[in-house]
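SEQUENCE-TO-STRUCTURE ENTRY
===========================

Backbone structure tokens: a row of integers, each naming the local backbone shape at its residue.

Task: work out the structure tokens from the sequence, keeping to the layout shown below.
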Amino acid sequence: MAKINLRPWREELRAEKQKQFVVMILGAAIVAGGLAFLWKSDMDNRIAYQQSRNAYIETATKKLDQQIREIESLKQKRDELLARMQVIQDLQGKRPVIVRVFDELVRTLPDGLYYTDLKRAGDRVSIVGMAESNSRISTLMRQFEESLWFADPNLSNVSAADSRRAGYSQFNLSVQQKTPEPEAEDKK
């Protein structure tokens, strides 16, 4: 006898293939969902890592800015201290000069003449004094010209003194102070 299959095998085959297709679609969707989840997790981790690096850089930048401000402050203090030290050194260096200037003022002072007022403005010394005669004033001016510590004497006024100092003349003189070279000072 002939074997005839009367079952609807084509519909079963189609239903089976449709089930396989749905399973494959669901499997692909699950795999795609898993891959999307892994990709999103990886991106979130990378973003968090980059944000932590950015935060670290910002805190390091703030620390460096603070250190830069401290360095600038220290540089300013150092410059102020150096300026003070320079002023002190200048004063220390000029201390013997002032003594020598007064000593030279006394050495150039001839007999019969005395100073009543001394003023110093920069390197110019203004002198007001009394002299017995005009020749004493000329001697004083010559001694200033020969001095190593003074130059350019300039007599601006000579007048008769008041009645209490009869015979005396009052004079106003200005002279330029100079610092001699060490060799010229040693020769004298």
The chain has a mean pLDDT of 87. Helices lie at 9-108, 134-146, 182-187.
